[in-house]
Design brief:
Elements (H helix, E strand, L loop, with lengths): L7 E10 L2 E11 L4 E5 L6 H8 L7 E6 L10 H7 L1 E4 L11 H8 L16 H13 L15 H14 L4 E5 L7 H14 L4 E5 L3 H7 L2 E6 L2 E6 L1 H5 L2 H7 L3
Bound molecules: adenosine-5'-diphosphate and magnesium ion (MG).
Length: 248
């Protein structure tokens, strides 16, 4: 498709920290509704890429267009979130003393962590949405339990659910399967595939079984740039990728 059809278009994104290039002319093109896995060795620049997209880090060079319009690199984090870009960090940060249901209710009220939000109560339409999200994240049975008692995997799903409450068009999810059991990892791949039916999703992940289960296009980052892109099978057979992963 053409650049103006992309939901996200990164071109020549360069980020330096004290002269070290964490991103080195990174380019990426995402179609609306796409599910994309981003893999690459530690330090490849995956999280920094998400920092640039969400306005946490401003690049030295390059553009980041959302729907062919806004250059995200000129906007701050709040403005980018308001455009419909949501991010999940690696560590789950749920309100441990609130129930699962209350966590989803609280997520309707940004900014997170503000105590005033604790007094907020959802409207009927919002309650219907909470019920829907509880189904998507498979935590309906636990809705009245304190989030602190959930397993690590369930906390991750709850946080993904909290992100869904804000109905972002583009979701960025950083290493969701880290620390999960194999069963939780496979369930997370299913969950993200289901979410990608209505949202565009970028997932950073190390676990190759997880990426295989996603069954989507894969981008391999290395030293702050795209090394290869295509199906998992194609990138796994790419000689540059083989060399990098085997450390040659
Ligand atoms: P990945 O998520 O792929 O593991 P990161 O994007 O976190 O990689 O980091 C890419 C590189 O940039 C790493 O070498 C990291 O040490 C460096 N880096 C990231 N953030 C900063 C920062 N705030 N200051 C200095 N160096 C950083
Ligand atoms: Mg990272």
């Amino acid at each position: 498709g053409a650049v103006q059809d992309a939901i996200l278009y990164l071109d020549g994104i360069t980020v330096s920290f004290d002269g070290f290039r964490a991103l080195n002319s990174l380019s990426l093109y995402l179609e609306p509704g796409e599910l994309r896995a981003v893999i690459g060795p530690n330090g490849a620049g995956k999280s920094t890429m998400m920092d640039v997209i969400t306005g946490k880090t401003r690049p030295d060079l390059g553009i980041a267009r959302f729907h062919g319009g806004h250059d995200l690199t000129a906007l701050d984090e709040a403005a980018i979130a308001n455009l419909g870009i949501g991010r999940k960090f690696q560590k789950p940060t749920v309100f441990e003393n609130q129930t699962v249901y209350e966590n989803l209710e609280l997520a309707l009220k940004a900014p997170r962590g503000v105590l005033a939000a604790l007094r907020f109560r959802a409207s009927e339409r919002q309650r219907a949405r909470i019920e829907e999200v509880l189904g998507i994240i498979n935590l309906g049975r636990q809705q009245n339990e304190a989030a602190g008692g959930l397993s690590h995997g369930q906390k991750q799903w709850l946080e993904i659910g909290m992100l869904l409450m804000q109905d972002p068009e583009l979701l960025l999810v950083d290493e969701p399967a880290a620390g999960m059991t194999d069963a939780e990892t496979m369930r997370t791949a299913e969950l993200l595939s289901e979410i990608a039916r209505r949202h565009t999703v970028v997932v950073v992940e190390h676990d190759m079984e997880f990426v295989r289960a996603l069954g989507c296009r894969v981008t391999v980052l290395h030293e702050g740039a795209v090394l290869a892109e295509g199906s998992l099978a194609a990138v796994q057979n790419n000689q540059d990728v083989i060399d990098v992963y085997l450390g040659r």
